[in-house]
Design a protein that fits this description.
Layout lengths: L2 H12 L2 H26 L4 H11 L5 E3 H8 L3 H13 L3 E5 L7 E5 L1 H21 L6 H18 L20
Antiparallel strand pairs: 1-3, 2-3
Helix pairs in contact: 2-6, 4-5
Organism: Thermopolyspora flexuosa
InterPro entries: HTH_MarR-typ (IPR000835), MarR/SlyA-like (IPR039422), WH-like_DNA-bd_sf (IPR036388), WH_DNA-bd_sf (IPR036390)
GO molecular function: DNA binding; DNA-binding transcription factor activity
Amino acid sequence: MSTIMMYSVAVQWLDDPRLTAAGLFTEAYTGVIARITPSLSEAGLSAVDFETLLRLARSPGHRLRMSDLAAQTNLSTSGVTRVVDRLERDNLVVRVTCENDRRALYATITEEGMARLNKVLPQHLEDIERWFTGLLTPQQLDALLEALRVIRDVVRPCATAGAERGEPEKGCGAA
């Protein structure tokens, strides 16, 4: 295939709106994360620490099975264990054995973890408003949330594991 022919084939694909959609999504995500991460760092939290604490705080009983926490955060079981180890050392999380199944462990946010979250959340919400949601009309935000849920439910079906009824989602690493 000649260079000219290869170039014309490549150009044909370069204008594909799917590339534009994926590129815009990536650019927006990395841009927003770059703007909101400094306030998390100032509070002594990494992005994954914050996500872990937030997911625990928003879950029934402020706790999740370790397997569900791994599924929700998209971490491996060893990855979530390392995060919980670190948060436990800082007294932000404790592990609690399940009353009904001694093999299962729950990660539970502590009062100190809730206090750290309460300290960082006002600034985090201001950052989200300034760099993300506040840039959209209410209708745009509703449409975006609906579209993101559709995508999330396909690409990360375990993202809400254990959040609704305290039980793991089918096929989401349940113990």
